[in-house]
Each structure stands twice: as structure tokens, then as C-alpha cells.
Automatic annotation (TrEMBL), chain A:
Region forming the signal peptide: 1-23
PANTHER family in the record: ARABINOSE-BINDING PROTEIN-RELATED, POLYGALACTURONAN_RHAMNOGALACTURONAN-BINDING PROTEIN YTCQ
Source organism: Paenibacillus agaridevorans
Region spans: Disordered: 29-50
SUPFAM superfamilies documented for this protein: Periplasmic binding protein-like II
Pfam families assigned: SBP_bac_1 (PF01547)
Protein's name in the database: ABC transporter substrate-binding protein
InterPro entries in the record: Bact_solute-bd_prot1, SBP
UniProt keyword list: Cell membrane, Lipoprotein, Membrane, Palmitate, Signal
Biased composition (Low complexity): 38-50
From TrEMBL, chain B:
Subcellular location: Cell membrane
Name used for this protein in its record: Sugar ABC transporter permease
Biological process terms in GO annotation: transmembrane transport
Pfam families according to UniProt: BPD_transp_1
Domain of life, per lineage: Bacteria
Membrane-spanning segments: 12-36, 74-100, 112-130, 142-162, 183-205, 257-276
Entry membrane topology: Multi-pass membrane protein
GO CC annotations, alphabetized: plasma membrane
Domain ABC transmembrane type-1: 75-276
Keyword terms of this UniProt record: Cell membrane, Membrane, Transmembrane, Transmembrane helix, Transport
Subcellular location, principal: membrane
InterPro entries in the record: MetI-like, MetI-like_sf
Family stated for the protein in its record: Belongs to the binding-protein-dependent transport system permease family.
Length: 504, 291
């Protein structure tokens, strides 16, 4: 009898354990109700009195909390909409995005990068917004050009508000130690031969210095001399990738010559970009290939390590016929779309349209004239440091840009850092002369391309490094290209040319 | 003869010690390097001058981490999850393991099988996500606690330990008229402290380091715990620093800021380890031998 009772008691204890598990769960729902606003499932209308619903925005990851940002507060005050911002994780954002959208999470606006946008639109997860934009999007239509709208369409139907990069510009350059050039009485090289002679002179006069450091296979300023400007280019009516450009083999041979003669960093094949930058910053190297952002990022540390140092910029080198060029950055960066599950599509469009209204747009991107920025004859300049305090994170909150005006307004952001703007200007003063359009810049993602391109790029890079290290001869270039073709390269070329023929 | 053996012993010891010191240094030096970077100025870090001691010593990076990032918020979330989670986990594990350790307990086999089953099979990410959504736990701290509430392995360690307690001790209490709960509380738990401490550490470390569940279940910025904060801050460093006033931006290198974030994040758990290590070492072998 005693043992029977004991058994019963033990069952009861196990039961209590089970109950505690349940209590843990119900405690959970209580907690959630207590935290109210943080939950995406909380009903919006109750809090705003029904007039304007609270909108849920899902966007890319940033290092700050957008909900506590001054721009967010100004957006709310300007538009009257309460917004809750949620961020995708930095780690594997696509997985989370797919789970959230598939399970019908209550977002009203999704800020998507182009691959994310095209994936969701192909899955049928987004609402068509053409009619809503026609009805409520007068400002959106005014600010965004027709060619950009095309990027938000899928099968002829509009699914998202496209946002291109702020201003078409040249990013790539070669940063050079201007003080070293001056000291050795050299002028900035403009052709390939001058470039080679400059490296040789630096090597001869300053044996401790690495004439050119870098990593990987990309040196766009040198490509320019061979007529290789853009990632893809039309050769005899067909689009070909850079690696198949007729002059690519010569470029490989030239770089190998530099490497063998010790004119470039002997660690080039094993450098990562950080190591190459360290060599320039610490004054060990005279040149490095990079973009204007890099010039600005390195500048202060460089100045401290090399007090008399001065950065200069080499333009794209001229080919034998005097022509030169480099790919310009002109691309779709985000698409703002509305998921099928949203019940506030109309309000979301109205909200984005209000932000695009000319005065609102200026206020939300630059702030108040005379307080955070100045404008004179169309030249916008920031008032520091209040501009960064009030509008530093404005880039996160854009839902499309007024393309014509913002190209000028955006420069105010660059002018905040004098060295940044100086580098930007040095590179872009001859924009019209050098900027070349990549014919596939606005191509939607193609499966055969997305699947094969990363491994092909890796193959190209590996082959380049093998050539430098003499394991592989430049003479095997043709053999390499046929291997490239059979590793998915010909599929990529075919897919891209199929798309290109529909565009012409 | 004897002295020769002694000499070879001494050689063995010396080589052994040297090896252990080298291995120890291999573990310690990267840590020192990161520590040095976190205290160094921008020019030295970006110029690759830092080895194991700071150059241009300053605290800017830490000041920025503490004042301008979500560090304390994230730490608070993690502490809350770890403390509540560990307490709940221990309670439930003990309350489940105790009856399951009694052979005469009816339904013991099927219940144990259920636990084993959950050890071997996992529903998958998407069903898990949908379950959390339907339970209304998304974007609550419970989404980081409930999935880890009972770790079957820990339950079995606990159960095996309880089985090793002589039945006669419990019977003596029973004769004095103690209820089962009373026996558990006054007799079993006091002599089970080593296993409880060990499981406590297992659970606490599990909650502290949990990255996957918050990654999937937490979207609200203000509920992201330390591990997510760490990853996202480190990955976003360049963009974050870009938008700071010059006084901040120019004072530290991205690498220095990353180092300061990493150091700040590991110090709290580092402080706990020395106090618990004692249990950790003795506890590792717990439950491995059935008495």
C-alpha cells in the first residue's frame, strides 16, 4: 500500500514538472502582452486612433537602432505615420527573410536588395502596386525616372519602388604617394609605359619601398590601358566577360612581368586587402589600387604614420590610341516592396509618397537649411558636426530617391569629410571622359549566372595568382579559358546574351 | 639505476611543461593581441604596428562601445535570459529527473523514450518558427528560453546521479514521515549539489552562447542578445564608424573598435568562470559511473 502511494506521488511530481513547463509557456504570452509594441503582431489601429495605421518596416541590418534615431522621429513628425523598424540579421538575411515572409509576418514595407526582390517577386510573395502608385504616388513618379521604374517591374507589373545609387560616379582609382613622385621628380603616369617607368624609378631610387601593393587580380587603372573597361563588354556583337576580353592575356603577362621584376608587392598573391592597406598606411608602399572610400578611410592613419605623406590619384591609364576608361557605379541598390500579407498597402504607398515630396525629401535627407546644411547655386554643403548627428543615418531611411536633385544633395554627405570629397573629386572630375557603362548593370538575376559566377570568379583569381607565382604559364591562357567555359562559363555567357538580345 | 630513471623523469617533466606552456601561449597570445588592439589608437592599428601591447593607449573605443552602441541593452537581455532560463531549466530538469530515477515509477520507460526521441530528431527550422509564431513567442525573451528549457542529455546526467543515491537514505526520511517533495528538498538536493552546479553551468553557458534561436526568432532590435549584437556590430563596423563625428571616427580604427566590442562581450562570462571552474572540473565525470 505504501509503495502504491509512493508511485502515485512520483507520478504527481512528474506532473508538476510538466505543469511547470506549461507555466513557462503561459508566462511567455503574458510577457509578450506586457511588451506590446515590440511585437509585430500587435494591432496597429488601437494606438493611433485609427487615422493612420502604424506601419511595420523590415530592412537591411545596420549597427544602430533605427527606432531611436533622430531621422525616425522627424519622419514620424513629417508624415504622421508611426513606424516600427525591424532589421534582418547580418548573418544569412535571406533565410530569415524567406521564413518571415513565408509565414505571413505582418510587414508593410520590405526594403530589399535586388536579388531578394527578384526572389520574392518570383515566389509571388509581393503585391502589385502599379495602381496604388498611379493613385497616390504623384511625388514618387515625379522623383523617379522611367528607366528606373522599369527595374521595379516583373512581367510588366510594378512590384516595388526602385532606388538607384545616389549618383552615377567613378569609384575606382589608384592611390599614389604624391610626395614620393615629387621627391623623385616624377609626374603622374598617364600611359602604361609611363606607369612602368614610374614603378622602375621608385624601385631603383627607393629600394626599401614596394612600388605597388595590392591583392587579387583587379587593377582597373591598368585594365584601362588594354581597353578593358567594364565587367562585361560588347565584342563583335556579343557580350563577353572581362576574362574573355581579347587583351586580358596581355594584362596577365604585364602583371607577371611587374611581379618578376619586383615592381609589385612580393606578397601580392597572399595579401588580403587589409594587408595591402596596412603596407600603404605604414608607408612601405608607394601605390595601391582602390576606391575613393578607401582613400578617405586610410587618410588619417596614413597621415599619422607618414607625417609628410600626401596622397595623389592616378587616372585610368591610356591605351596606345589614347583612350581610357573605367566602369562607373550606376546600379539598383534597393527595391521597396509590399508583401502580400500587408493590409496597409495603400497607406504604405501614401507614406512613401509623402517622404518623396520635394520639401519633405530635402528635410529628411539633409535637415533644415541654415541649420544642418547650406545650399548655394545648387551646391549643397553640410554644417558640421550637427549634420552627422541629425542626418548621418538618413541613408537607411530612404524609400527611393529624387534622382535628379539627390545626385547633387548627396554630395553634401561626401563634403562632411574633406579628404573623402577630395578623393571623390579627383577621380570624378573627368567623369564624362572616363565613365563607361557596364551593359549588364541593370540585368535582373539569372539563375545560370548566380549559380556559376562566384566559382568562375574564384577560378580566374586562382589562375592569376598561379601565373604570378610561376606555377602556371601565361601561354596556358587559352587552355584556362576552355576550362573556364566547361566549368559553367559558356552557360553564363549564353544566358547573359539571351537576356541582352531581348533588351536591344 | 634509480637516479637515471629520475633524470629521465625530470626530462620528461621539463619537455612536458614546456609543451604545455607553448600550447597555453598559443591560446593566450591572440587574446592579448586583440586586447592590445582595443586600447590602441587608429594610426597604430591601421598601420599594423600592434603586437601584444597597446600603442597610443586610449579608451576611446571602449567609451564608444559603452555610450553609443546597444552593448548594455544586449547584455541586459542576455543576463535576463541566462538567469531566468537557467533557473527554470534546473527546476524542471530536477523535477523530471527525480521521479524518472525511481525504477518503480509507472510510465518511466515511455517518458524516457520521449526524451531520447527528442534528442535524436528535430522538427526543423521552419516548423519551429511557425510553432513559435503560433504560440505568440516570437520577439519575446521566451523564444530564447523555451527551446532550451530541458536538454535531454542534462536530464540523463541528473537522473543517473539520483539513481546513485542509496535508497536507504531516502527510506529513513520516509520513516520519519517526510513527503516525496520534502525528501527531494531536504535530503536529495543537498547531497546533489555537485550535479546541480554542473548542470547549472551547462545551462548557463548554453543560454549565454545561444545564437541560433535569437537569430531566427528575434527581429526586434531592442531584444537582440549579446551574441547577435556582437556579430552585427562587428559586421557593420565600417558603416557605423562612417556616420560618427570626426572626433570619434578618427580616434579609433575599425579593427580597434571590433576588438573593444569583443573584449567587452567576453569579460562578463570570463569573470564567472573562475568561481565555477571548481565544479566544472569535478562535475565533468558526474553520472559517468553508475554506483
Amino acid at each position: 500500500m505504501l509503495s502504491n502511494r509512493m508511485k502515485w506521488m512520483k507520478t504527481a511530481i512528474a506532473g508538476i514538472a510538466a505543469l511547470t513547463v506549461l507555466a513557462g509557456c503561459s508566462g511567455g504570452t503574458g510577457q509578450e502582452a506586457g511588451q506590446g509594441g515590440t511585437s509585430p503582431s500587435s494591432s496597429p489601429s488601437a494606438e493611433t486612433g485609427g487615422a493612420k495605421p502604424k506601419l511595420e518596416v523590415l530592412a537591411f541590418n545596420v549597427g544602430f537602432d533605427p527606432n531611436n534615431d533622430p531621422v525616425a522621429k522627424d519622419i514620424e513628425a513629417t508624415t504622421g505615420y508611426k513606424i516600427n523598424y525591424t532589421l534582418l540579421p547580418k548573418d544569412n538575411p535571406e533565410e530569415k527573410l524567406n521564413i518571415e515572409v513565408a509565414s505571413g509576418a505582418n510587414y508593410d514595407i520590405l526594403t530589399l536588395n535586388p536579388p531578394q526582390f527578384y526572389t520574392l517577386v518570383a515566389q509571388g510573395a509581393l503585391q502589385p502596386i502599379g495602381d496604388l502608385v498611379d493613385q497616390h504616388g504623384a511625388n514618387l513618379k515625379e522623383g523617379i525616372s522611367e528607366s528606373s521604374w522599369e527595374l521595379g517591374r516583373y512581367n510588366g507589373e510594378l512590384y516595388g519602388i526602385p532606388q538607384k545609387n545616389e549618383r552615377a560616379n567613378i569609384e575606382q582609382t589608384m592611390i599614389v604617394r604624391q610626395d614620393v613622385l615629387d621627391e623623385l621628380g616624377l609626374k603622374t603616369p598617364e600611359t602604361l609605359d609611363e606607369f612602368y617607368e614610374t614603378l622602375k624609378t621608385i624601385k631603383a631610387k627607393k629600394p626599401d619601398m614596394i612600388p605597388l601593393t595590392g591583392n587579387g587580380m583587379n587593377v582597373p587603372m591598368v585594365w584601362s590601358a588594354y581597353g578593358i573597361y567594364t565587367a562585361w563588354s560588347e565584342v563583335e556583337g556579343q557580350l563577353l566577360p572581362r576574362i574573355k576580353h581579347p587583351a586580358m592575356e596581355e594584362y596577365f603577362a604585364f602583371m607577371k612581368k611587374l611581379f618578376d621584376e619586383g615592381l609589385v608587392d612580393k606578397d601580392w598573391p597572399i595579401n588580403k586587402s587589409a594587408q595591402a592597406q596596412e603596407k600603404f598606411i605604414s608607408g612601405q608602399a608607394a601605390m595601391i589600387s582602390g576606391d575613393w572610400n578607401l582613400a578617405s578611410n586610410m587618410n588619417d592613419a596614413f597621415k599619422t604614420n607618414v607625417p609628410n605623406g600626401k596622397m595623389g590619384y592616378i587616372s585610368p591609364l591610356q591605351g596606345p590610341d589614347g583612350s581610357a576608361g573605367v566602369e562607373m557605379a550606376d546600379k539598383l541598390i534597393y527595391v521597396h516592396a509590399i508583401p502580400k500579407s500587408s493590409k496597409n498597402a495603400e497607406e504604405a504607398i501614401k507614406f512613401m509618397d509623402m517622404k518623396m515630396e520635394k520639401d519633405n525629401f530635402t528635410f529628411l535627407t539633409l535637415g533644415e537649411k541654415g541649420v544642418t546644411f547650406n545650399e548655394e547655386n545648387g551646391v549643397y554643403s553640410p554644417i558640421m558636426p550637427i549634420f552627422t548627428e541629425k542626418r548621418g543615418s538618413a541613408y537607411f531611411f530612404l524609400n527611393g530617391i529624387r534622382e535628379v536633385e539627390y545626385a547633387e544633395m548627396w554630395l553634401a554627405r561626401l563634403r562632411r569629410t574633406p579628404t573623402l570629397f577630395e578623393a571623390f573629386n579627383a577621380i570624378n572630375k573627368d567623369f564624362d571622359k572616363y565613365a563607361k557603362v557596364n551593359p549588364i548593370a541593370f540585368m535582373p538575376p539569372i539563375e545560370a549566372v548566380g549559380k556559376n559566377l562566384p566559382s568562375l570568379t574564384q577560378m580566374e583569381n586562382d589562375f592569376f595568382l598561379q601565373v604570378l607565382l610561376s606555377g602556371e604559364k601565361v601561354e596556358n591562357f587559352a587552355k584556362f579559358l576552355s576550362k573556364w567555359d566547361s566549368s559553367g562559363g559558356s552557360d553564363v555567357i549564353k544566358a547573359i546574351n539571351d537576356w541582352y538580345s531581348t533588351k536591344k | 639505476m634509480n637516479s637515471i630513471r629520475n633524470r629521465s623523469d625530470r626530462w620528461f617533466d621539463a619537455v612536458n611543461n614546456a609543451l604545455i606552456v607553448v600550447v597555453g601561449l598559443i591560446c593566450l597570445l591572440p587574446f592579448l593581441h586583440v586586447l592590445a588592439k582595443s586600447f590602441s589608437d587608429q594610426a597604430s592599428v591601421m598601420g599594423n604596428k600592434i603586437t601584444f601591447y597597446p600603442i597610443g593607449m586610449h579608451l576611446e573605443a571602449f567609451r564608444f562601445v559603452f555610450a553609443h552602441t546597444r552593448f548594455f541593452e544586449a547584455l541586459q537581455v542576455t543576463l535576463l535570459v541566462t538567469i531566468i532560463g537557467t533557473a527554470l531549466s534546473l527546476t524542471i530538469t530536477i523535477l523530471a529527473a527525480y521521479p524518472l530515477s525511481k525504477p518503480e515509477f509507472k510510465g518511466r520507460k515511455p517518458i524516457l523514450l520521449l526524451y531520447v526521441f527528442s534528442m535524436l530528431f528535430y522538427g526543423g527550422i521552419i516548423p519551429g518558427y511557425i510553432l513559435m509564431k503560433e504560440l505568440g513567442l516570437l520577439n519575446t525573451i521566451w523564444a530564447m528560453i523555451v527551446p532550451l528549457l530541458v536538454v535531454p542529455f542534462n536530464l540523463f546526467v541528473c537522473k543517473t546521479f539520483f539513481e546513485g543515491i542509496p535508497e536507504s537514505i531516502e527510506e529513513s526520511a520516509k520513516i520519519d514521515g517526510a513527503t516525496n517533495l520534502r525528501i527531494l528538498r531536504s535530503i536529495v538536493l543537498p547531497i546533489s549539489l555537485p550535479v546541480i552546479a554542473t548542470l547549472g553551468i551547462f545551462y548557463a553557458v548554453g543560454y549565454w552562447n545561444n545564437y541560433f534561436h535569437p537569430l531566427i526568432y528575434i527581429s526586434s532590435v531592442d531584444l537582440k542578445p549579446l551574441q547577435l549584437f556582437l556579430y552585427e556590430t562587428i559586421a557593420n563596423t565600417e558603416e557605423l564608424l562612417q556616420e560618427q563625428p570626426d572626433t570619434v571616427r578618427l580616434s579609433m580604427a575599425p579593427e580597434g573598435f571590433r576588438a573593444a566590442t569583443v573584449i567587452s562581450s567576453i569579460v562578463p562570462i570570463l569573470l564567472v568562470y573562475p568561481f565555477l571552474q571548481r565544479y566544472f572540473v569535478t562535475g565533468m565525470t558526474l553520472g559517468s559511473v553508475k554506483g
